[in-house]
Design brief:
The chain has a 7-stranded mixed beta sheet, with helices on both faces. Strands 10-9-8-11-12-20 form a 6-stranded mixed beta sheet, sandwiched between helices. Strands 1-5-4 form a 3-stranded mixed beta sheet, with helices on one face. The chain is built from 15 helices and 21 strands. It has 2 domains: 2-247 and 446-468, Aldehyde Dehydrogenase, Chain A, domain 1 (3-Layer(aba) Sandwich); 251-430, Aldehyde Dehydrogenase, Chain A, domain 2. By secondary structure, it is an alpha/beta fold. Helix content is 39%, strand content 21%. Helix 2 (58-74) runs antiparallel to helix 4 (91-111), helix 3 crosses helix 4 (91-111) and helix 4 (91-111) packs parallel to helix 5. InterPro entries: Ald_DH/histidinol_DH, Ald_DH_C, Ald_DH_CS_GLU, Ald_DH_N, Aldehyde_DH_dom, ALDH-related_metabolic_enz.
Length: 471
C-alpha cells in the first residue's frame, strides 16, 4: 500500500519516504511518499476550497457526508484490518472504530442542516427598537486538524466531519506512525462528493510539519494528543480559535455499596482497552478500604482472563503498544510504583511490545501511575478510607477529562457529579464510556473546548448578529 499526500486537490508524491510498520511484528503495512509542503500554497488552496464548499447547497453537503458513511460501511472489513495493522488495535475493537466513524459522519450529515441561529425581540430595551434581531451561524474558515495514533480513523473524522458540516475546509495532519487510515478516509470523502480543495491531508513529523502548520494563519485548530505538545502549540500558535484534547489520569471510585465484581471488570477492561492507549482509559481505581481486598481479588481475575496477542486474532483482547518508547514509559511507571511501595499482583513484564494487563496494589498517591497518564494496560489500585477521601484523591492530579464512580447510593452519585473535577462524570460505568454525540472534553490540564459532533460544529462556526431596523 503506497500513498502520496492530498494537496491542492491532487495526490502528490515526494522524496520523503515514511514507512508504516505493524507494531505487533514490525512488518511493513505501507508507505507514504510525502512531498515538501508549501504551507502558504496549502492555505491558499484551502481558502479557495472553503469558498467553493460554502457555496454548495445544504442538501449537497448533507448527502456527501451521508454517502461517505455509506462507503465506510461498504469498506468496513478493509478499514478494520488497516486499523489493526497500522495501530495494533484488536480486530474486534477496530471494527467498532469503523462503526463509530460511520456514526460520526451520519451525525455530521444531520448537523449540516441544523446550523440554527435564534431570534430576539427588537424592542426589549428602551431606546433600542428594531423590527427584528436574529443570529446566524457562519463557518470560521479553514481548520487545521492534528490527531494522534490511537484512533487513526475515528479521531480524524471527529474533526473532519463537523468541520465540513459547518462548511469549513480542513487541512489534516495525522500521526506519522498511523497515517494510512486518514489517507484512505480522504479518498472516501472525495469519492462521496466533498469538494477536493476543501480537504487536504499532509504527512510528516509533528516536531517539523506540525509546528510549521500551527504557526500558520489558520482560522481554527483542533488538536488531540499529549499535554506537552498541546501546550506547546497553544504557546506558539497565532490561530484565534483552538480546541485541545490533551489526555487524562482518569479515576474510578468504588465505594462500599458498589457491585464490586462489576466495578472491577469495568475498571480492568477500561484500563486495558486498546492496551490502555486511550485518553479516557481507566488510569486509577480508588477503592474504599471496606471492599479494597475484594476489589483486588476480582480485578486480578479479570486481568488474567484477558488474552494478549496478535491484533488480527478474533480472540485477542489486548494488542501491542505502539512502539518501544511506549513500552519503556509503561515499564518506568510500573517500576516507579514498586519503588514507592506498590505490589504487582499480576502482569508487569512485557514481551516485546506486548504488555500484559497489570494490577498494582497499595499504590501511593505520589507514584507516576497515580498522577500522570501512563497510556498502558495498567490498573493502579489506591486505598481510600472513605468516599470523601476517594473524591479528594481523584481530584489531586493536574488532569480532568473523565471520572467514574461505582455506588448504589443516589446521594453519592449526585455528590460525585458536583465534586469531581472532570469534563465528564460517569456513574456505574467505566471512564471509557463515550457516545459520539455527547459533549466531550476536559478541564484543568486535559484541554479546552468540546468535541462531540453537535458541539464541534458549533466550535467551527461563528455567530453573527443581524438587526433589521424599522423604517
Amino acid at each position: 500500500m503506497e500513498y502520496g499526500c492530498l494537496i491542492g486537490g491532487e495526490w502528490l508524491e515526494g522524496d520523503r519516504e515514511i514507512v508504516v510498520e505493524n507494531p505487533y511484528d514490525g512488518s511493513e503495512v505501507g508507505r507514504v511518499l510525502a512531498p515538501e509542503v508549501d504551507v502558504e500554497a496549502l492555505l491558499k488552496d484551502a481558502r479557495e476550497g472553503q469558498r467553493r464548499w460554502r457555496e454548495r447547497p445544504t442538501y449537497e453537503v448533507r448527502e456527501a457526508l451521508a454517502e461517505a458513511a455509506h462507503l465506510l460501511k461498504k469498506h468496513e472489513d478493509e478499514l478494520a484490518e488497516l486499523i489493526a495493522l497500522e495501530g495494533g488495535k484488536p480486530i474486534r475493537d477496530a471494527r467498532y472504530e469503523v462503526y463509530r466513524t460511520r456514526e460520526v459522519l451520519r451525525l455530521s450529515a444531520a448537523e449540516a442542516e441544523r446550523l440554527y441561529g435564534e431570534t430576539l425581540p427588537g424592542d426589549a430595551q428602551r431606546g433600542r427598537t428594531a423590527e427584528l434581531i436574529l443570529t446566524v451561524r457562519e463557518p470560521v474558515g479553514v481548520v487545521l486538524s492534528i490527531t494522534p495514533y490511537n484512533f487513526p480513523l475515528l479521531l480524524p473524522t471527529h474533526k473532519l466531519g463537523p468541520a465540513l458540516a459547518a462548511r469549513c475546509s480542513v487541512v489534516h495532519k495525522p500521526a506519522t506512525v498511523t497515517p494510512l487510515s486518514s489517507l484512505r478516509l480522504a479518498e472516501i470523502l472525495l469519492d462521496a462528493g466533498v469538494e477536493p480543495l476543501a480537504l487536504q491531508v499532509v504527512v510528516g513529523p509533528g516536531a517539523e510539519l506540525g509546528e510549521e502548520l500551527a504557526r500558520a494563519d489558520f482560522d481554527a485548530l483542533s488538536f488531540t494528543g499529549s499535554r506537552s505538545v498541546g501546550e506547546h502549540l497553544r504557546e506558539i500558535s497565532p490561530i484565534p480559535r483552538i480546541t485541545l484534547e490533551l489526555g487524562g489520569n482518569d479515576p474510578v471510585i468504588v465505594d462500599e455499596t458498589a457491585d464490586v465484581e462489576a466495578a472491577a471488570e469495568a475498571a480492568v477492561r477500561g484500563a486495558c482497552y486498546h492496551a490502555g492507549q486511550v485518553c479516557i482509559a481507566v488510569e486509577r481505581a480508588i477503592v474504599v478500604e471496606d471492599v479494597y481486598e475484594e476489589f483486588l481479588e476480582a480485578a486480578v481475575e479479570v486481568a488474567e482472563s484477558l488474552k494478549v496477542g496478535d491484533p488480527l486474532d478474533e480472540d485477542t483482547d489486548v494488542g501491542p503498544l505502539i512502539d518501544d518508547g511506549a513500552v519503556e514509559k509503561v515499564r518506568r511507571h510500573v517500576e516507579d510504583a514498586v519503588e514507592r511501595g506498590a505490589e504487582i499482583l499480576t502482569g508487569g513484564e512485557p514481551e516485546g511490545r506486548l504488555f500484559p494487563p497489570t494490577v498494582l496494589a497499595d499504590v501511593p498517591e505520589d507514584a507516576l501511575v497515580a498522577r500522570e497518564e501512563t497510556f498502558g494496560p495498567v490498573l493502579p489500585v489506591i486505598r481510600a478510607k472513605d468516599f470523601e477521601e476517594a473524591i479528594r484523591i481523584a481530584n489531586s492530579t493536574d488532569y480532568g477529562l473523565h471520572a467514574a464512580v461505582f455506588t448504589e447510593r443516589l446521594d453519592r452519585a449526585v455528590k460525585a457529579t458536583r465534586k469531581l473535577e472532570a469534563g465528564g462524570v460517569i456513574v456505574n460505568e467505566s471512564t471509557i464510556y463515550r457516545a459520539d454525540y455527547m459533549p466531550f472534553g476536559g478541564v484543568k490540564a486535559s484541554g479546552v473546548g468540546r468535541e462531540g459532533v453537535p458541539q464541534a460544529v458549533r466550535e467551527f462556526t461563528e455567530e453573527k448578529t443581524v438587526v433589521i431596523g424599522r423604517r
